[in-house]
Amino acid sequence: MAKRKYKKDFMFEKILIANRGEIALRIIRTCKEMGIKTVAVYSTADKESLHVRFADEAVCIGPPPSSDSYLKIANIIAAAEITNADAIHPGYGFLSENAGFSRICQENDIKFIGALPEQIDGMGDKASAKETMKKAKVPTVPGSDGLLKDYTDCHKTAQKIGYPVMLKATAGGGGRGMRLCWNDEQLEEGWHSARQESAAAFGNDGMYMEKYIEEPRHIEIQIAADQYGNVCHLSERDCSIQRRHQKLVEEVPSPFMTDKLREKMGIAAKKAATAVNYEGVGTVEFLVDKNRNFYFMEMNTRIQVEHTITEEVINRDLIKEQIRIAAGKRISGDDYLPKRHSMQCRINAEDPFKDFRPSPGTITNYHKPGGHGVRIDTHAYAGYKIPPHYDSMISKLITVAETREECITKMKRALDEYIIEGVKTTIPFHKQLMCDPDFVSGNFTTKFMETFEIKEE
Question: What is the enclosing helix (H) or strand (E) of 350?
Answer without folding.
Answer: strand 350-351
